[in-house]
C-alpha cells in the first residue's frame, strides 16, 4: 500500500510538471472536483488505478475525479473472457452499481440489464451534451447502429479500434529458400509447401519433426476453410455468425466449410497440421518457433513479426507474412480483421446522480486532447509532439512491451470508451509486420465483419435455449472430422438435419429479424 | 485380572453410583427444558467443538438454499432473487428437451459406475496389501508415495496427464512406439476419455483413500488373529475370514457415501481434460451446467440443473442407506 501511495505521489508530481496550456475549455465542473465511482476490471489492469498519470491528467483537465470501487477484480485470461463477465455479474449481484462501469465484453451485459433499468440510456444525453461523440456517430451511422440495444437506445460508449489488419498468414521463408520453393500463391501450392516442410527436413536435423502448420488458438486452424471458399468466424469472436449482403448465416453450415473440413482432415492425416493442435494451447507459437519446428501459422501481424528476433539464435530464421493463398475458385480471402467496434467500453449506472457531467466526461475522451491522452499517455512524459504528431519518447518505447507500458500508465484501456489512433501502434511495429501489412494493403482481401445484434428478451430466450447446444455440437463434429473420427462428406446431411432439429433455423430467423431491426433493412 | 465390584444385579458399582447421582440431580417434575439446559451445562465443551462445523453448514450450505428458488424463476441478477418473476418448471422442461443434458446425465452415471467398479475396491485392496507388508520402512515409503498424488492440484494433474498422453512427446506414446505402433492422440478420442479419467482418479486418490481402511484394520481385535494362528490359519485365510469381515461396516459406510456422490464427478478435472471432440463421452452434468449456465450467464437454468443433480444424489443415498440397513444393519443414520 505504501508503495502505491509513493507511486501516486510521483505520478502526481509528474502531472504537475507537464506543460499545460492555460485552458479551461475541457473543464466540466467548476469549484470542488466531482468524484465519480468506477468499476473497471480487465485481465491486464484488474482495477482502475487512481494513480495512473492519464487519470491524473484527466483530473486536471476536467476536474472530474474517478474513484475506483471495482468488485470482483481478477486477471483471468481464458479465451472466453469469463473473468470480465464474472466481475460484472458480481458487481450487479452486490446490488451497488457504480457511477461508471467499464469493461471488455460489456455490450451484451448492458443491453440485457440496461432496458431493465440498471444503466442509463444515452441517446438523448449524447445528442444534447456530447458533441464529439455525436460527431463521430454522424460519420459512422453503421457503428451507431451496432452499439444500440434492442429498444433502440445506446447503453454504452464503445472502444473503437483503429487500423484494418489483424491476423495474417506467416511462413518460414528461409525454409522455402532452403528447399528451393516459392511463396505459395494457391491452396494447392500451399499444400505442396507444407508437405515439403514435413518430408524434406528444412530444419536440417535429420528428423521429420517439423510441424508444417500450427496455431496458438485452434480456431485459427478452422479459419483455413477460407482457402476452399468456406467461412469460419463471422467476426473477431470465434464461431460467430456471419453476414453476407444483409443475410445472416453461419460459416459452419456452408458448402465451402464442408470442402474445407474434408481437406483439413486430409492434411491432418498426412501430418501437415500440428498433431496436437487442439491441446497445445497458447504457447504453441513460442515453443514451435523457438525450437525451430514450426513452418507456417495464421496469427497477429505485430506480435508474430517480433519472432524474427530469433534469427540471433536460429541461423537464417525468417518468418514473413504472405498473402492469403487463392482458393480453387481463385479468391484470396483474409477472414480476420480488426473489428470496427468492440463490444467493450463504458456505461453509466442507474444510481449516478451526475448523469450530464458523466456524459460530458465520456465526451472529453473524444476531444482531440482526450483522444490523444487515451492513446498516447501524457505529453512530455510518454510522448512529445513532433511536426504536429505525437511521437513516443525513446525511454518509453524501450521500457518493455509498449502495450503493457501504456496500460500501466492508464492509456489504451479497453474498458474506456475512446477512439483508438493506429499511429500509436505503427511507431513500434517491427519491420516484418509493417512489410506484411503493406503486402496486404496491395490486395483487397478483407471481407465485412458481423458487428453483432442486440436481442429483445423473447429473441434472447431463443438464443439462450439453442445457441449453446448448437455451438457445442458444431465444435464436437468439427474436431471429430478433422481428427478422422468420422467423414464430413458422409455425415453432412445428418449433421445439417441434426442442427435444424436443435433449432438452428429458428435461431437464424431470430438473428435475421434482430439484424434487420438494428441495421434498418426493413 | 483385578477383582470387580458388582451389585446384586451384576452391575458395576461405579455405574450404579453415577446413575443414582443423576437421578438425584433431576427432580422428577422438572420440564425437559431444564434437563436440556443441564445437559448443555455439563457437555458444553463438546458442543463448542461442534460449533464451527454447524456455522459452516449454516453459512455455506443452508443459507444458499434460499437461492435455489431461481431454478423456478426467470432470474435477472439486477432484479434479484426476490423480484424475479416465477415461471414454474420451464427450466426443467428446457433441460429435459436438451439432448446434450440427457447425454451428460448418461455420461455422469457411466463415469461414476466405472469409478465405483474400479475406483472403490482399489483403496481397500491397497490397504489390505499394506497390512501384509512386514518391512516397516518399506511400508512407510510405499505409503508416502501413494499418498502424494492426493496433494497435487487438479490443474497440475491435468498437465501431467496431457503431457503423458501427448502424441509426440508423451511417455505413453513413446512406449507404444517401442512396439512399432502408431502414436494415438488419446485426449481427442472419445473412447479413451473414460479409461484415462477413471485411471487418473484411481492414481490420485486410491492411496489417500486407503487410510481410512488401514485405520479400520488397525482396530480389529488382535486376539482374533491370535486364536486363528492357534487354529492353524494361514495369512490368506486370516485376511478373508477375519480382516475383511471386521472392516465390512467401514466398507459399507464408505460405499453409501460414495453412492451419494455418484452425480459429483470431479468436474474440474473433466474441464481440464476434455475437448469438443470428446464431449460425447466426457461431458458430465456439472460441466454442462458450467458451460451453459455460468459461461453464458444463465444462472436460473444452471440452478435447475444443479437442483436436479442434488435430487438424484439424495434419492441414491437414501436408497443405499435403506438397503444397507435392511441387509447388513450398517447405515449412516
From TrEMBL, chain A:
Q: Where is the signal peptide?
A: 1-22
Q: Does the record's keyword annotation contain Manganese? A: no
The record's InterPro entries line, in alphabetical order, gives: Bact_solute-bd_prot1, SBP
Which coarse location class applies to the principal site listed for this UniProt protein?
Answer: periplasm
| Protein name, UniProt field | Sugar ABC transporter permease
Q: Which organism is it from?
A: Paramylibacter kogurei
* Keyword Acetylation belongs to the record: no
Q: Which domain of life is it from?
A: Bacteria
Where is it located? Periplasm
Q: Give the matching Pfam families.
A: SBP_bac_8 (PF13416)
Keyword vocabulary terms for this entry: Signal
Q: Which Gene3D superfamilies match?
A: Periplasmic binding protein-like II
Family, similarity comment: Belongs to the bacterial solute-binding protein 1 family.
Q: Name one GO cellular component term.
A: periplasmic space
User: Source taxonomy lineage?
Assistant: Bacteria, Pseudomonadati, Pseudomonadota, Alphaproteobacteria, Rhodobacterales
Amino acid at each position: 500500500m505504501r508503495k502505491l501511495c509513493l507511486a501516486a505521489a510521483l505520478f502526481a508530481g509528474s502531472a504537475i510538471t507537464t506543460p499545460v496550456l492555460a485552458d479551461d475549455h475541457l473543464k466540466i465542473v467548476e469549484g470542488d472536483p466531482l468524484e465519480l465511482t468506477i468499476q473497471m476490471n480487465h485481465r491486464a489492469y484488474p482495477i482502475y488505478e487512481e494513480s495512473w498519470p492519464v487519470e491524473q491528467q484527466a483530473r486536471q483537465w476536467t476536474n472530474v475525479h474517478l474513484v475506483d470501487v471495482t468488485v470482483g477484480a481478477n486477471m483471468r485470461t481464458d479465451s472466453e473472457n469469463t473473468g470480465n463477465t464474472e466481475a460484472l455479474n458480481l458487481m450487479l449481484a452486490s446490488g451497488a452499481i457504480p457511477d461508471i462501469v467499464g469493461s471488455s465484453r460489456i455490450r451484451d451485459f448492458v443491453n440485457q440489464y440496461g432496458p431493465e433499468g440498471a444503466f442509463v440510456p444515452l441517446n438523448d444525453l449524447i445528442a444534447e451534451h456530447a458533441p464529439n461523440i455525436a460527431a463521430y456517430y454522424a460519420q459512422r451511422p453503421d457503428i451507431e447502429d451496432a452499439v444500440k440495444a434492442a429498444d433502440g437506445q445506446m447503453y454504452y460508449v464503445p472502444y473503437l479500434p483503429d487500423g484494418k489488419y489483424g491476423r495474417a498468414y506467416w511462413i518460414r521463408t528461409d525454409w522455402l529458400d532452403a528447399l528451393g520453393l516459392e511463396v505459395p500463391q494457391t491452396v494447392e501450392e500451399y499444400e505442396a509447401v507444407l508437405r515439403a516442410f514435413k518430408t524434406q527436413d528444412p530444419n536440417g536435423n535429420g528428423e521429420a519433426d517439423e510441424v508444417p502448420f500450427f496455431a496458438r488458438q485452434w480456431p485459427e486452424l478452422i479459419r483455413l476453410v477460407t482457402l476452399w471458399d468456406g467461412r469460419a468466424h463471422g467476426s473477431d469472436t470465434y464461431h460467430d455468425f456471419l453476414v453476407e449482403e444483409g443475410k445472416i448465416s453461419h460459416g459452419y453450415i456452408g458448402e465451402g466449410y464442408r470442402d474445407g473440413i474434408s481437406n483439413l482432415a486430409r492434411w491432418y492425416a498426412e501430418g501437415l497440421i500440428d498433431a496436437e493442435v487442439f491441446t497445445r494451447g497458447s504457447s504453441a507459437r513460442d515453443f514451435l518457433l523457438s525450437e525451430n519446428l514450426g513452418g507456417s501459422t495464421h496469427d497477429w501481424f505485430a506480435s508474430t513479426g517480433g519472432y524474427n528476433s530469433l534469427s540471433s539464435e536460429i541461423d537464417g530464421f525468417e518468418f514473413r507474412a504472405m498473402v492469403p493463398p487463392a482458393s480453387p475458385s481463385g479468391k484470396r480471402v483474409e477472414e480476420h480483421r480488426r473489428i470496427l467496434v468492440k463490444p467493450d467500453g463504458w456505461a453509466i449506472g442507474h444510481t449516478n446522480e451526475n448523469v450530464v457531467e458523466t456524459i460530458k466526461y465520456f465526451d472529453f475522451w473524444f476531444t482531440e486532447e482526450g483522444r490523444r491522452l487515451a492513446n498516447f499517455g501524457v505529453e512530455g512524459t510518454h510522448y512529445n509532439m513532433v511536426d504536429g504528431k505525437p511521437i513516443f519518447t525513446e525511454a518509453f518505447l524501450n521500457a518493455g512491451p509498449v502495450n503493457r507500458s501504456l496500460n500501466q500508465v492508464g492509456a489504451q484501456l479497453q474498458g474506456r470508451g475512446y477512439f483508438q489512433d493506429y499511429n500509436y501502434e505503427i511507431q513500434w511495429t517491427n519491420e516484418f509486420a509493417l512489410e506484411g501489412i503493406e503486402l496486404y494493403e496491395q490486395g483487397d482481401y478483407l471481407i465485412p465483419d458481423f458487428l453483432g445484434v442486440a436481442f429483445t428478451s423473447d429473441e434472447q430466450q431463443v438464443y439462450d435455449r439453442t445457441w449453446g447446444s448448437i455451438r457445442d455440437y458444431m465444435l464436437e463434429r468439427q474436431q471429430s472430422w478433422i481428427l478422422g473420427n468420422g467423414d464430413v462428406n458422409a455425415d453432412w446431411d445428418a449433421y445439417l438435419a441434426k442442427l435444424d432439429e436443435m433449432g438452428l433455423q429458428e435461431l437464424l430467423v431470430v438473428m435475421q429479424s434482430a439484424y434487420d431491426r438494428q441495421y434498418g433493412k426493413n | 485380572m483385578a477383582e470387580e465390584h458388582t451389585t446384586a444385579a451384576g452391575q458395576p458399582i461405579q455405574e450404579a453410583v453415577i446413575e443414582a447421582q443423576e437421578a438425584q440431580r433431576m427432580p422428577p417434575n422438572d420440564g425437559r427444558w431444564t434437563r436440556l439446559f443441564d445437559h448443555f451445562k455439563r457437555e458444553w465443551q463438546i458442543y463448542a467443538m461442534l460449533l464451527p462445523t454447524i456455522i459452516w453448514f449454516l453459512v455455506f450450505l443452508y443459507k444458499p438454499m434460499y437461492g435455489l428458488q431461481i431454478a423456478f424463476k426467470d432470474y435477472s441478477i439486477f432484479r434479484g432473487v426476490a423480484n424475479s418473476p416465477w415461471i414454474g418448471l420451464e427450466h426443467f422442461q428446457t433441460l429435459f428437451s436438451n439432448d446434450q443434458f440427457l447425454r451428460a446425465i448418461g455420461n455422469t452415471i457411466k463415469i461414476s459406475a466405472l469409478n465405483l467398479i474400479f475406483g472403490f475396491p482399489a483403496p481397500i485392496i491397497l490397504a489390505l496389501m499394506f497390512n501384509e507388508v512386514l518391512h516397516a520402512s518399506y511400508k512407510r515409503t510405499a505409503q508416502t508415495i501413494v499418498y502424494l498424488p492426493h496433494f497435487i492440484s487438479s490443474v497440475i494433474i491435468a498437465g501431467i496427464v496431457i503431457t503423458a498422453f501427448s502424441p509426440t512427446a508423451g511417455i505413453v506414446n513413446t512406449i507404444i512406439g517401442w512396439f512399432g505402433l502408431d502414436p494415438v492422440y488419446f485426449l481427442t478420442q472419445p473412447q479413451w476419455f473414460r479409461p484415462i479419467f477413471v485411471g487418473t482418479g484411481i492414481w490420485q486418490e486410491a492411496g489417500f483413500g486407503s487410510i481410512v481402511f488401514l485405520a479400520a484394520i488397525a482396530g480389529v481385535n488382535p486376539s482374533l488373529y491370535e486364536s486363528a494362528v492357534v487354529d492353524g490359519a494361514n495369512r490368506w485365510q486370516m485376511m478373508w475370514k477375519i480382516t475383511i469381515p471386521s472392516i465390512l461396516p467401514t466398507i459399507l459406510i464408505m460405499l453409501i457415501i460414495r453412492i451419494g456422490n455418484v452425480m459429483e464427478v470431479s468436474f474440474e478435472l473433466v474441464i481440464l481434460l476434455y475437448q469438443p471432440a470428446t464431449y460425447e463421452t466426457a461431458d458430465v452434468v456439472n460441466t454442462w451446467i458450467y458451460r451453459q449456465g455460468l459461461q453464458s450467464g444463465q444462472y436460473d437454468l444452471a440452478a435447475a440443473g444443479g437442483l436436479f443433480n442434488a435430487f438424484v444424489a439424495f434419492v441414491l443415498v437414501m436408497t443405499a442407506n435403506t438397503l444397507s440397513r435392511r441387509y447388513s444393519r450398517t447405515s449412516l443414520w
